[in-house]
Structures are given as structure tokens and as C-alpha cells.
Amino acid sequence: MGSVGILALQGCVDPHREHLSKLGVASKLVKLPQDFESIEGLILPGGESTTMIRLAKAFGLWDVLAKESKRIPFWGVCAGSILMAKEVEGPKQESLMIMDFTAERNSYGRQLDSFEGMVQLSQRFEGHTHPALFIRAPRFSKLSSGVSVEGSNGDDAVFLEQGLHMVTACHPELTNDSWFHEYFVGKIRSLQSV
Ligand code: GLN
Asked: Is 12 a catalytic residue?
């Protein structure tokens, strides 16, 4: 398979490259519209969603992102998931509307700005657990029926899938566990073989 793109405008980019290279998968940093030509999936990393939107527009990437989401799988991590949501609250902000849920920004409050937690996967994945960091994470709400909850932390849905795409409210790339990267790569491969 070709490379997996990582949107590299701002935020937590490098750890994704390391996980992918551990899996023997090439990655490409995406900063310009032409960078999409050679990628087969895209990771939208964590960081600061408001800044990312501003930069995506300045680099001419905003409309390209909306268009490319029709072609290749996207995985939005934290701020990346906020970019992909249909609606954003706390405060309101525009988004690419790629998946049908609402992202409530910074919803874990200040005391819990950052914590390491476990993601309990759905029965589809035999309920296995994997660690991730929650850093000023959003909460996901108003999920449409087309969105499936594939992982939770307590009562919160933190890993969602819809069609080609997936989002995690937390950062699995900041642990040594590559399960989410392996899963995303497998998703890209399975879509290519149909
Ligand atoms: N709170 C950030 C935002 O709203 C996201 C934080 C993160 O990506 N870790 O954009």
C-alpha cells in the first residue's frame, strides 16, 4: 500500500509517524493540496482546532479536505475529530461535517484537563481495552443512527465510526500501543481490496 497522510499544519504529528513506521507503513506530511495525490488515508491530529481551521484555509486545504473525505478514509484525533464533526459546541465553530455527531469542546473541564484513560472497545473487538491520553478532549453527543460507538471511557463514547471514517476523542498515539494505527491501516487496506 502507498502512504498514509498526516495533516501537518499544527499539533501532535510526529507520534503518528512513529507508530506507522513501527507497522512498516510509510507516512506523508500533508500541508498542500497536491500532497493528497499520493495518500490513501489521512490522520487529522490533535492540537488546537481553531488554529487548524485558520491554517487549513490559509494553505488552501479546507475545501480539499471536504472533497478528499469522499475518496479516502479519515481518522480525526481530538482536535481532528472536532474538525470532522457535523456540529461543534463550546464554543460553536465551523467544521467539515464529515461525520454525523456533535463535538462539545473541552467538555472534561479544567481540573481534568489531561488524564490517561482506557478505551474499552465494542463487542466487535471483543471488548478489549487500550490506553489513550485525554487532553482537553471533546465529548461526542447527538450521534445519528449511522454512527457506531466502537469504544468508550466510562459512560462516554470516545471512538466512533461512520462509513469510511473514524474519530477518537483521545490520543492513542501518545502511548506505546499501536492498536488504533493498526486498525486504521487495516481499514484502508480492506477498502482497497473491495
Ligand atoms: N481542546 C482542543 C480544541 O478544542 C483539542 C485538544 C486536543 O486536540 N488535544 O481544539
From this structure: no
What's the pTM? 0.97
For residue 193, report the distance from its CA to the centre of ligand 1, in Å.
34
Q: Provide the b/e sequence for 91-118 (b: ≥16 CB within 10 Å).
A: eebebbebbbbbbbbebbeeeeeeeebb
Q: Quickly tell me which residue has 485525554 as its cell.
A: 134
What confidence tens digit (pLDDT) does each residue in 59-74 have?
999 999 999 999 999 9
Q: Return the SS3 of 178.
A: coil
Could you give the 3-state DSSP secondary structure of residue 164? Answer: coil
For residues 93 and 59, give the distance between their C-alpha atoms in angstroms, rounded to a whole number. Answer: 19
Candidate list 40, 78, 165, 170, residue with the active-site label? 78
Q: Are 95 and 57 in contact (CB under 8 A)?
A: no
